Amino acid sequence: MDDQSLDTLRRDFIAVADATYAFQGALKKRLREIDRKALNAQVLVKRHGKELAGYGVVAQAFREGAQAMQLAADHVQKLINPLMLHFMETLRDVQQMESLRHIQSAATGNCPALAERMRRHAEMQDRHAAGSRRAGLALNTALDRFQSVIAELDYVVVNGRIEAALKGAVNAPLAQVSLEMDRSVNGVQELLRAYRQQIERIIE
């Protein structure tokens, strides 16, 4: 690996680390918002009683969807750390191999111990690179699952907005709750889309 390739690997690692840090922070905030809005919907239903009996099912689905989204997000978070670890190990392996190659090129005679060390490092690099690929695949699978959970909650939100539009005197607060939930879910969708765009080239 030449210096340019090594620099690219370093930049890729930093890019994934930065994107992941930003994604984790923003996602945590968004999920708190969604859970709070789902709870607000349930409180609104309880406050108005029979007037919103039909919307109660939607409010409960909001809350369950928010909880399912949190579980899916937790699974994503657990898979991010192994990916970053394998990425760091691969970067370290490449740097060590480059150092050994420089030593080998500067050596004036045959050095069996150095050759053996390089062989072991090459094997280690291959193992860590394979680990990175497996971790990337696992993360992509978890992100796919997360995306499907978001889509399920989005379907609930659409039904909620329809239900809210059918209500009479209490339509305004109900419509507001549904609109806010819609915006929050769309925000998570956009956040996930942006994160995948940032990392997909690097971890594929």
Give an overview in words.
- The protein is an all-alpha fold and 204 residues long.
- The chain has one domain.
- It has 4 helices and no strands.
- The protein is rod-shaped and about 90 Å long.
How would you briefly describe this protein structure?
This protein is mainly alpha-helical and 204 residues long. It has four helices and no strands. Helix content is 92%, strand content 0%.
List keywords for this structure.
204 residues; mainly alpha; 92% helix
Give me the number of helical elements: 4
The radius of gyration computed from the alpha-carbon positions, rounded to a whole number of angstroms, is 25 Å
Helix share bin: over 70%
Order of helices and strands: HHHH
DSSP strand tally:
0
What's the number of structural domains?
1
Could you report the average pLDDT, rounded to the nearest whole number?
A: 80
Secondary structure: elements and pairs:
Elements: H1 3-48, H2 53-106, H3 112-165, H4 171-203
